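Record passed on underneath.
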Amino acid sequence: MTGLLAYCRQGFEPELAAELTERASLLGFAGHARAQRNDGYVVFASDQGEALDRALPWRDLIFARQKLRMLAELRAINPRDRITPILDALAGAGRYGDLWVEHPDSDSAKPLAGLARSFANALRPALRKAGFLTEKEDARLPRLHVVFVQGDHLFLAASVAHDSSPWPLGIPRLKLLPDAPSRSALKLEEAFLVLLDADQRAALLKPGMTAADLGAAPGGWTWVLTRHHLRVTSVDNGPLRQHVLDTGLVEHLRADGFHWKPSQPLDWMVCDMVEQPRRVAERMAQWFSEGWCRHAVFNLKLPMKKRWDETRLCLELFAGQAGRPLQVHARQLYHDREEITVFATPH
C-alpha cells in the first residue's frame, strides 16, 4: 500500500478525509480516503503516494495533526513475533534516522500506549542490527513510524523533519500554568508554537509590540500576549482577572469586539469570540482591509455538519475580503475543540 497516513482529532475523520481528497484532486493525484469516525486517523491510498507526499506539505493541512508517507499495512500479526513481519516489510526501504512507535489519539487506541513503549524498546535494536536504523538519531534521514491501531494491526510509515510534526502523535505537550486565567490560554500558546515558525516567533513577538484581544474575558489570550511582553488592549464587556491587569501591560475596554476599532494600527489582533464563523471571518478580513493590524490569530467555531465545506468557505471569504495578499495558516490544534485556529500575516 502507498499513500498517506494522517492523524486527526477523534471525530474529525470525515473532515480530514474530505480535505485530503479535495487537495489531492486539485494537485492532480488520484486516490481514495479510508476513514472511520472516532479512529483518530485517515488513510489516503494512492498509487502516487511518494509524489503526493512531496506535493502536499503538512503545514498546509488543516485537520491533520501529523502527515506520514505510507510504507505498509500489516494485519493479523502474531503477538509473539511482531518484529519479523516489520523487518520483512522494510526490505529495500533504506535507512532511518529515528524510530517512533505510536498509536492514534482515540479512545480505542489509547490502551495501546504501554504496548507502543515496550515494543519500541524491543524493535529499536532489531532495526539497528538489520541495518534499517542508525545507531544515533540523525535528523537528516527519514523518521520511521510504527503505528499500532490494534495489537495485531499496524501501519509502517515515514516522515521527514521539515515536512511533519516534530511531536509524537502530532501533539505538543503544553502545561497549563497555575496563573493562567483559563484553559483557552493553551490555544494561543499552541497557535504561536504550531502556526508560526521559529523565525516568525522571533520577529513578530517582540517586547513593546501592540495588540488587541477581542472578546478577552477572563483574559487567557491577553495573559499569553503579556508573557511575550506585548502591550494589550483587551476588549470585552466582561471582567478580566486582576493579576492580568496588574501586569501594567493591559488596558481593559468594556466594549463589543465586533464593533470596536483601534485609533491607530496595531501589530497584532487576536480573537476567540463565540460567533458564527462566517461573521468572524468577515470581521477579521475588515481588520486587514482597514489596516488596523499587521498580524492576527483568530478562531473559527465550526458547525456540526459540513465542517470541511464551512472551513473552506470561511477561509476563502477571509482571503477575498482582506484586501491584501496574506500568508494564511490554519489548523485544528490539539487544544481546539469544534473549531480551527487561523494565523494571518502579510505575504
